[in-house]
Amino acid sequence: MCDNTHLEVSKLIRMKNVLCILISLFSTQLFAKELVSFTVSFEKEYIDVPISLSLDNIDYKRDSLQLQLYEITRSGQKFIPSQLESGHLARLWFVLEGVSKRNSTRKFVIRLGENKLPDQPDRLIYPDKSDGNLTFYSGKKPVISYRYETMYPPKGVSPLFKRSGFIHPLWSPKGEVLTRVQPPDHYHHYGIWGPWTLTHIGDREVDFWNLNKGEGTVKFAGFLSETTGSVFSGFRVLQQHMDFGAKGEDQIAMNEVLDVRVWNSSNGVWIIDYTTAINTPLKDGIMLDAYRYGGGIGYRATEKWTKDNCTVLTSEGKTRTDADGSTARWCIVAGESAVDEGRSGILFLSHPSNRAHPEPMRVWPLDSNGGRGDMYFEFTPIRHKSWELKNGNDYVLKYRMIVFDGQIDKETAEMYWRSFSAAPSVEIKFNKNI
Predict the structure, then answer these.
(1) pLDDT higher than threshold 60 for residue 235
(2) Of 156, 200, 375, 414, whose CB has the highest number of CB atoms within 10 Å?
(3) CA distance linking residue 319 with residue 281, whole number of Å
(4) Beta partners for 50?
(5) C-alpha–C-alpha distance, residues 372 and 380, integer Å
């Protein structure tokens, strides 16, 4: 009797277990519907690479459900933070952190799941707008600040040097300020910015860089969007390049949409994209004349950096002694800092789609500023050849900054450039039952 009772109990337990499994499978299908699986293949080594996947052929809009991304690994499925970017094209973004080895593959699946997401580290980059600055923070650490209100020069200095629409400060991951604005030797230098110097509107020269000439300036004209997410945060602004010498009222010579994106990363660096799109409303266009300064992305470094403690290394092996006027895919600018490692810096990356890529550079020589050897760096797409902007066309320049403490060697710099310049191969497999 006892044996029969034990047997019946065992059967009930097994039936209960089977029922639980069936319910679990049903729930998974109901609340975590698989939409698509895909494989990312790496022919070469990549590092901290942002990847996007088009969602245009995927029905992902369901009430109370949201997209969830998982990587399929040997130890199971790992939740990967992802972020939807909608607009003309819908894309799902995520970052493959760390090094992805050469000739390797990584597999992923996208599901529609309940709104409650798995627990994940709180690494959100969030904005704070105050005192004329839009500043992004990672936890309590400041990352980057955009100045949208006009900054006036010190008392006694010409008000022509006033300016808005630039990046300052830019901090290293451990808090070292790497930018400088309004230095007494060049009051028109503003952290990270990109005005054009020698230009012509018809037969008339207009300088948007040397503000004391009174010929032109660049100003913030409005926020277009602000984004905060689990993968990236950032902003888009309209900046106007103003011509002061036109007949009648001042005129807009160029409209610029500046798009800055800060990627969430746990690898001890800041990854920041700086994309500028310019066009001209002028009927006959504008000529950006060949010159050693102008446009692209310019950087005036901290006053701490001089010829004695600041270094440059380009993708072509050039240094501070011979980088000026040369071309490069990337350039490391680094110098002494107060962090534990003793050095901080920025790896500047130029995208292959940019004009004149590999891009010419302006790098101040060792005897700059009365022999101090202060640091100024710029990717200058018009250094060797003029650029005519025609009415009705958009012109885009893309850059990425890897902000770091310590050292970045040339092999790591090459991986970061590769991760920016050419996305790895993605092979998609759709679920036919969707």
Answers:
(1) yes
(2) 375
(3) 40
(4) 95
(5) 23
pLDDT given at position 315: 98
Q: Which two tokens stand for residue 378?
A: 């710029």
Which residue(s) pair with 190 in the sheet?
181
Which token pair is 175?
């808090």
CA 303, distance to chain mean position in Å, is 25
From 2.70.98, 3.30.70, 1.20.120, 2.40.10, which CATH number describes the 125-421 domain?
2.70.98
Confidence band (pLDDT; 50, 70, 90) for 16? very low
pLDDT grade for 123, boundaries at 50, 70 and 90 = low
**Token pair listed for 240:** 């106007």
Rounded-to-integer distance, Cα 71 and Cα 87, Å: 26
Stated length of the chain: 434
User: Average pLDDT, stretch 27-44?
Assistant: 76
pLDDT of residue 34: 86
pLDDT tens readout for residues 249-306: 999 999 999 999 999 988 899 999 999 999 999 999 999 999 999 989 999 999 999 9
List the beta bridge partners of residue 400. 273, 349
- With contact defined as beta carbons under 8 Å apart, do 419 and 46 qualify? yes
- Distance CA(210)–CA(208), nearest Å, equals 6
Tokens of residue 61, six digits:
């809009």
Domain ranges of the chain: 1-31, 32-118, 125-421
The residue-averaged pLDDT of 42-68 equals 85
CATH 2.102.10.10 fits 32-118, yes or no: no
| Pairwise CA distance, residues 371 & 171, whole Å | 27
Instruction: Find where tokens 């500023």 sit.
Output: 369
User: For strand 327-328 and strand 359-363, is the pairing parallel, antiparallel, or unpaired?
Assistant: antiparallel
Nearest to 41 by CA among 92, 101, 105: 105
Asked whether residue 319 carries a pLDDT value surpassing 60, the answer given is: yes
pTM of the model: 0.91
Residue 53, pLDDT above cutoff 80: yes
